[in-house]
Design brief:
The complex is a heterodimer of chains A (384) and B (162). Chain A is of the alpha/beta class. Chain A is 43% helix and 13% strand. Chain B is α+β, with helices and mostly antiparallel strands and 162 residues long. The longest helix of chain B is centred in the first third of the chain and has 14 residues. Chain B is extended and about 60 Å long. Classes of the chains: A alpha/beta (384), B alpha+beta (162).
């Protein structure tokens, strides 16, 4: 047989997969390894989806997505962040940020173009750059800096082949929120070296200690920035697969072109549910965010009390404590914790080399379970 | 501070330490505030939400009825004096003045249908200025005071996801 695609065959499976396989075989596991809300989609949104099914909204929509949804997204971005996007030409609906990321990278990159990615970062960033023909250039961020991007480190990685910088804030896995100054510095770098910026803002509503900065709203950023967002996290709609891209029209138009041939459109029912989410579900979102915030405070305090150093995560729903005091590497720590105490976490090294020495714990878990997990983790640490 | 009341309304077993952590306040501050609320009657008491059908079985659980009461109002007091009289019975769990076809809506519990019917016939409808009553027995409780009595939705998430 002839060889399959070498880029894809050469991309290793996510390190998360192995832990999924172990955890899936065990009983009574408390999972802090889940990258999605424990809330079910708010009922008013589900009800809108049911209504859409009952009334036969089971067809394709236009490639770019429902006009009403695009109008609502652009209006929401303007109200919340003063970002200016024209819904007709600069916004399209995707099947989640995952597709949005893939589209953006395929549209921006030519073969061999480099994309600078501050890590630890979401597991899909580097593979998607590779699938789009580019080369990922990971640059480290430091726990001591709260995982804030150091513009000097980014600039040192820029070469004549550098095409874009890809960043997620608030971040999976660290929960870090990039300071506005760091984002502004990235915009200056992008202007200076003529780079694009790809900004994954799926966790925008889940910020606890300040307001979110939309990269596309920073002066100078707009014409070179692709903003990715969606409904999976704040509205607890992961399985609906609906997100969006906002970008300057030249980029957005080509994103629609790929999307029209590869995806055709995002699911119609999901788009209508997303309309309801933006029109009516703000209170539901605020209630969920307030709940995450309370769990965050209890969980982070608990981690510190059992001896795990944990920087205050300002966003998303992850804590990323250091486990260096245990003397174990993060992979060994996670595997032994799972087998000894049936608590599933994700080792930090799967998110990049700077994640070594950390574990990702999702606090999108009911409070009594978080408290039980802390008891088990404490017992595990004492047993070492 | 309102957040603390909302949290206690959801789960009154939360300790002052946990409440303090959740809301970013000191334990002393939370304790002082909760104490003040208890003293002022803002927090009237703490209780549990019990699904009695699970304890006694559907057949032997207490019965509950909503009873709508038409009342002739009186000068100076309106409906208040009658509402007050009805409220004093231990069988009466709630009394509201409402708009619509009747004036008061009460919740009454008893060990069986007969007990509730007797209460309505002998006590409630014989109060001065009570003109008429309409009794609606509860057949099944689906949700009460914000608490759903059906089983929670199972967690469909995979144990580890990116």
């Amino acid at each position: 047989m002839k060889a399959l695609n070498t880029t894809i065959a050469g991309t290793p499976p996510s390190g998360i997969r192995r832990f999924f396989d172990i955890a899936a075989e065990m009983e009574d596991v408390i999972s802090l390894g889940v990258g999605e809300p424990d809330f079910v989609t708010p009922w008013r949104i589900r009800e809108a989806g049911i209504y859409a099914l009952e009334h036969g909204f089971t067809t394709y929509t236009s490639n770019a997505g429902l006009a009403e949804l695009r109008q609502l997204i652009c209006a929401d971005l303007h109200t919340r962040y003063r970002a200016e996007y024209a819904w007709e030409t600069e916004c399209l609906i995707t099947t989640g940020v995952s597709e949005g990321l893939d589209l953006a990278l395929r549209v921006l990159l030519n073969a061999g173009d480099e994309v600078i990615i501050p890590e630890p970062c979401y597991v899909a960033y580097e593979p998607c750059v590779g699938f789009a023909g580019g080369t990922a250039v990971p640059v480290p961020t430091r726990w001591e800096d709260g995982f804030a991007v150091d513009p000097a480190v980014v600039e040192a990685a820029i070469t004549p082949r550098t095409k874009a910088i890809l960043i997620g804030s608030p971040a999976n896995p660290t929960g870090a929120v990039q300071p506005r100054a760091a984002l502004e510095a990235l915009v200056r770098l992008a202007e200076k070296h003529d780079l694009y910026l790809v900004s994954d803002e799926i966790y925008d509503r889940l910020t606890y200690d300040g307001t979110h900065t939309c990269l596309g709203a920073i002066p100078g950023a707009r014409e070179r920035t692709v903003v990715l967002g969606g409904f999976s996290k704040a509205q607890a709609m992961t399985g609906w697969r609906v997100g969006w891209i906002c970008a300057p029209s030249a980029v957005a138009e080509l994103c629609v072109r790929v999307h029209q041939y590869t995806m055709l459109c995002a699911p119609h029912v999901s788009q209508l549910a997303a309309v309801e989410a933006l029109r009516e579900a703000d209170q539901d979102v605020e209630d969920m965010v307030a709940d995450y915030d309370r769990r965050r405070r209890v969980f982070v305090k608990g981690l510190r009390e059992i001896g795990l150093d944990c920087p205050e995560p300002g966003g998303a729903f992850y804590a990323f404590p250091s486990i260096r005091s245990s003397g174990l590497d993060s992979e060994t720590f996670a595997e032994r914790l799972l087998k000894a105490e049936s608590v599933a976490v994700v080792p930090g090294n799967v998110f990049g080399p700077s994640g070594e020495g950390h574990i990702r714990c999702s606090y999108a878990t009911a409070l009594p379970l978080l408290e039980e997990a802390l008891v088990r983790m404490d017992r595990f640490l004492r047993s070492l | 501070m309102r957040e603390i009341l909302e949290l206690l309304e959801q789960d009154s077993t939360l300790s002052h330490e946990t409440l303090a952590t959740m809301t970013g306040r000191s334990v002393a501050e939370v304790s002082a505030q909760v104490g003040a609320w208890e003293k002022a009657g803002v927090i009237r008491r703490y209780k549990a939400v019990v699904d009695w059908e699970k304890v006694d079985g559907a057949d032997s659980a207490e019965v509950t009825a909503f009873i709508d009461v038409a009342v002739t109002p009186a000068r100076g007091v309106g409906f208040d004096d009658v509402a007050e009289r009805i409220s004093r019975f231990a069988e009466v769990r709630s009394v509201y003045l409402v708009s619509g076809g009747h004036d008061l809506r009460c919740t009454v519990t008893g060990s069986n249908i007969r007990a509730v019917s007797d209460f309505v016939a002998r006590k409630l409808s014989t109060i001065d200025r009570v003109q008429a009553t309409a009794t609606h027995f509860v057949l099944k409780t689906h949700k009460q005071d914000g608490d759903s009595f059906s089983d929670p939705e199972p967690d469909h998430r995979l144990p580890v996801t990116p």
